[in-house]
Design goal:
Order of helices and strands: EEEHEHEEEHEHEHEHHEEEHHH
Shape: globular
Helix content: 25-40%
CATH architecture: 3-Layer(aba) Sandwich
Distance between the termini: 10 Å
Strand order of the largest sheet: 5-4-1-8-9-10-11-12-13
Number of domains: 1
Number of helices: 10
Radius of gyration: 17 Å
Strand content: 15-25%
CATH class: Alpha Beta
Amino acid sequence: MFKILAVGEVLWDLLPGGKQLGGAPANFAYHARAFGADARIVTRVGDDDLGREVLERFRALGLPTDTVEVDAEAPTGTVSVDVDAAGQPRYTIHEDVAWDRIEAGPTAMAHAAEADAVCFGSLAQRSAKSREAIARIVAATRPDALRILDVNLRPPFVDREVVERSLGMANVLKLNDEELGVLAGMFGLAGSPREIVEALAGRFGLRLVAVTRGTAGSLLFAEGRWSDRPGTPVEVVDTIGAGDAFTAAMTMGLLAGRPLDEINRRADAVAAFVCTRPGGTPALPESLRSGF
């Protein structure tokens, strides 16, 4: 059983139809757990009703709570979400919440030392406290562990210094096609998407770069090899959490040593399914959960 650790935000997406548990690291950990990994998340919730509901939901989903911290003062994170006619979400991410105060406690550090993979993003690093905790946790992983940066750029919380530091800590990068353009601008990279991916991989010593492209599918680059997967046509309810599910399936495939095209195909299929259900943590069918 692979040991996988996510670190970062957990929050409630306040959708037009009601609230859904969210946050990219939480979604990632949920899906990795569904695929059979020993997965958990280092995060922080408030000592409030929403925080207690997070803990209850994690237990119901089978996610351990030993690395979930409780803050006595700051509230549990929330995000107001509007979904447009194409199913694309628009986020208002509220500030000064519990996950802005993540700590790298002894339990989190112990799990980091044992992890086969750790996944982190840039959003949870908007505060100095959480940024330092995330850096300590990632640094505590074994040299052979996957250190996956799901960059997850969410304006106005986009900081070049944070992104560059995060890329320096990572050996795998996952981003979408819009974020690829942002990073190209940040680092002065020109050319086709493939040329930009190759430049990022070379500059930061990345073992793999994954680019999700919505209905156009996904592109993977690893050690000079490419996998280009066309999109899977589905009836989209919303796209919340689809990229996180992709990252979880990709991580499992990498840990299992699967061929690049198989990793891409399975990750794309999982992401496509998530798009057909509301929220970021729908129950996956057995056909998508098994075989890793």
